[in-house]
């Protein structure tokens, strides 16, 4: 068991940053975020115009134990100390740096994953008053995965905007339901979101929507022209739409935009969860029962055919 490293900074403080555990340098010096990850943190805070001296920094786990992952036993042992620090600090804004801090501070949020949670504001009614929390990628993560350094910098910029009182994206935890209707035609004009199912050789159907929480499913569309289509993965959708006889005059691709931004998840389901609070079912989950039934029926037909063939051959 290494040296215990407790939080450091002014108390009370409006801003608290919670990491995972101290590193080797932190364990030697007895202060959080003073090693390589601390240098990265300083850079991100400086770029976001946040004064490091005004922040209280701490970790969920208090001891350095090599590069091993944090264990549930360690979290349980050190969680009372974190709670005591927060009561002394009484922050209005808390940055959750990494997955461990997110799991500890936002346990009621289902399916916690940083790739859809980072940069979103979460409200929390703390014992000392209302508090705003924001998951961020850990500063050290970019040292090993350079592709997320841009997203990390964006997280701290969003955190700074939240501290300044600017409007930032908030987590939506409502259960959203939608109305689907089946038709054969598309609207004559306008902008619409379009998704396709199937392939160029076997286009199955398309769904379109021009209004929140409503959509139409068209299985065998008539030849049509769409003025502006909002697609996700246009390379696939445009080809399938063409096979259906649908012409697209202009389109925008949310997958391409997410890739160019570098701070948004690229999956459509993750984008819907992040921005709309909608948890979409995976296609395999949706068709599993029907697929199983068809497979069983097919195997039954095969067994019946084998039985008939064997019986005929015996005669």
Give an overview in words.
It is elongated and about 80 Å long. The protein folds into 3 domains: 15-163, Uracil-DNA Glycosylase, subunit E; 179-276, Ribonuclease H-like superfamily/Ribonuclease H (Nucleotidyltransferase, domain 5); 285-315. It is α/β, with parallel strands linked by helices and 315 residues long. It contains 11 helices and 11 strands. The longest helix has 32 residues, at 283-314. A hairpin with a 4-residue loop joins β7 and β8 (203-209). A 6-stranded mixed beta sheet has the order 6-9-8-7-10-11. 31% of the residues are buried.
Keywords, separated by commas or semicolons:
single chain; 315 residues; alpha/beta; Uracil-DNA Glycosylase, subunit E; Nucleotidyltransferase, domain 5; 3 domains; 6-stranded mixed β-sheet; 5-stranded mixed β-sheet; 11 strands; 22% strand
Strand-helix topology:
Blueprint (H helix, E strand, L loop, with lengths): L14 E5 L4 H6 L6 H12 L7 E5 L12 H18 L3 E5 L1 H7 L8 H4 L4 E5 L2 E8 L4 H4 L4 H15 L15 E5 L7 E8 L4 E7 L4 E5 L5 E8 L2 H10 L2 E8 H8 L6 H9 L6 H32 L1
Parallel strand pairs: 1-2, 1-3, 3-5, 6-9, 7-10, 10-11
Antiparallel strand pairs: 4-5, 7-8, 8-9
